Amino acid sequence: MSDRHPDAATMAAFVDGTLPAPEARVLAMHMAECDECVAEAGDISAFAAEERVAAPPKPSHWWGYAAAAALALVVVGSGLYARQGGDIRYRLTMWSLMSATKHSQRPIEPRLSWFPWSERRPVTRGEEEDKDFALEAEAGLVAQNTEDSKEAREQHAHGVAQLFAKERRQDAVATLSRVAAGSHDATIWNDFAAAQYAVGKYKEALSAADYALQLRPNMPEALFNRALILQRLQRDNDAIAAWNQYLAIDSNSNWAKEAESKRNDLQRGY
Fold first, then answer.
1. What is the pTM of this model?
2. Is residue 186's pLDDT more than 90?
């Protein structure tokens, strides 16, 4: 990495969550001062890089988490979080969550805005889901350091972080409800739908997903969640049509493979 700006390979590894922790820390500190690099990272990832490129080799769980943790510590633990502009803080905070999630199993079934695909964490009927302590530690750090923010975007990050711990999901619904109430941002409404799904409020989740799609027609995350909700509501024909609608705009990603599997199960009567 040059003294001025990182090269493309370094930036791509940072966005993907595979950059070693010491380098991630240095780059995060640089980005907190450099709007140009933040914009470049946004272009590289578009908050959905996993849908456009093949997934890289998966690092060990704790090594991948170390890079994400280094980023979070820089952003929210060193004072940079409080000193830098809201947009930079918001992006770096969300990247720290996405990086941790990419090398883990996702804690909820619905699709959060911008987040990379990962397998759903298994849940046995009547039992508590397994905890991912590294992921929950990352989310807990973000939740703690965004709790008192008055910025709507940072409250969005706060609500998303709360979703990662089962005991905080009702709090996540309340947080995202407050943020959505004053917002016309489809990403917030989609995540509000995901939160309501996570606590079993499926009809309310459907309304939120529908509104996200009014704001941004063909938004992949909201289309995915809408089909998932319809399937949960046992509206099988509507769910099949909704999965087909999703697959019409995404046929190659890991999200698409999951959507196709769910649609095929419905068609076979499972």
1. 0.71
2. yes
